[in-house]
Structures are given as structure tokens and as C-alpha cells.
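Bench notes, afternoon.
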Amino acid sequence: MSTVTTNATTSQPTSTTSTNPRLSERSGRDGARRSGGITTAYLGLEMKRVTRDLVTMFFVAGLPAFFFLLFGASAGYSAEEAGNGNVAMYVMISMAAYGAVTATVGIGGMAAVERMQGWGRQLGLTPLRDGSYVAMKAIVALAIAIIPITLVYVLGLFTGSQGTLMVWLASAAILIAGAVMFSLYGLIFGLAFRSEAAVSAASGSLVVLGFLGNIFFPLSGWLLDVARFTPLYGYVQLARYPLTEGMVMDTEGNMSHEALWMPLANVAVWTVILAITATWLVRRSRGRQ
């Protein structure tokens, strides 16, 4: 801590640096306490702000649940066997994945837009650090992603989705953990477009990636070959793995086996690509500011 004192001989103010360890320690504790308090308060504010937006919550949680009831629970083929469960379980995992990525993409996109619009400078006046801000956004994204997953899984439990306990637990855990990757996807759109339209563009592109990711209906032929290189395909295929053990059904009902390393490689490569792209865009935006 820097203090100003008066030299008794020269009567000139001189600047000295305090080395009082108690004052430094106390200042550090006070800063950490203030930062922690703001982090908790801001986290609660973010959760309330997102969950009170009923339109957003409908598309995040209500729409995947509706799709599951339409294409899974009420379909005539839902009770047919599919690996370690039934077809309803297969559709349930797919729709929960779509809801989870919709949530994380929206949170990531809004985080970037907020910082572009000057909110970052406002937060800079508080003890809240950039790392805490990013961690809070990640926590909020994960919390919101759990909502559609829980809702769709509860609906599946009461409407005939069947699978082993391992299928239920492992698929839910993969869905939650893997959804974090797509917060980077939303962040990239926010940084690239620098407007609120970025969130709509990111969410809209998820519909296209959902079809290419083999989420809404089975693909076949060259389209399935292309789908294997898209980001949602690896994420969903990995979440389905405890149920299907790698079996993939095409449009004609033909079954083929896919090794575990393929969806793992897909997720790993896309995570690296999205992380590098987001980092580059953050550095570019700082350079412009």
C-alpha cells in the first residue's frame, strides 16, 4: 500500500511503500471477501434473470420436452428394443441433448454480447475478476443446461423410457459435461457478430446442426458420412453410447457399429477448434477496444 509522509528535515513530501504485512493481509482478505460477495450476488442475479425469461425458458426446456413427447413417448415404435433400453430412451437422450446445447449456446452468446456492449467495463469497477466472471457464466450455463435434461428425463421416466441404471446415469452425466463445449460455440457467435442477433443466429444454426447431428431422425448414405464431422453428432453419439454401445441405425433401418474413439475424437477436435477460435476472437476484440 502506498502512503505519503512528510520529511522532518526537508519539509518535502516523500512517497514510501508500506511493508506492513498486517495491512497487506487485511487488504487482501477484504478484497477477496468483497469479490466473493459480489460473485455470489451476481450469480444469483444471473440465475433469476435467465429463469424469469419465459420465452427463453420455453425454447430451452419446453421445446425439447414437446419434441420428446411427440417423437418419442407418443410414437408407436417407442416401446421397441434399442440396445440396453428402448426407442423412447433413444429419443429422450437426443431431445435432452438438443435442450442442453440450446441453453449453453444462449448463455455463451449473451456473455459475449454483454461485454461488447460495455457491461465488461462496468464490472471492471467492481472487485469481480475476469476469471470469476467466466466461471459464473459457465456455472449458469451448466445450471440452465440441467433444466431441460431433468425435465425430459422425468417425462421419459413416467412415459415409458426404459434402460439400465447405467444408461440413465451415464447418459445424463455425458450430456451435462459435454454441453459446456457449446458455450464456446455461443461465445464465438457473440464475439463475431457483436450484436444481440448473434444469439438468434447461434440458436438457429443449432437446428441445422441438430439435423446433421442425427438428432431428429436417422441419416444414411453420404449425408451420414458428412454428419460424422459435425459437432453435435459426436456429442449425441457419445451420450447414446451407454444405450446403443456404438450401434447406429440409418434411414432404411440398417444397423452398423461405430467405435467409441470416433465420437470421442469428434468431441475432442471440436472442443479444440472452438476454444482456439474463441480465444482468437477475444484477443481481436480487445485489440479493437
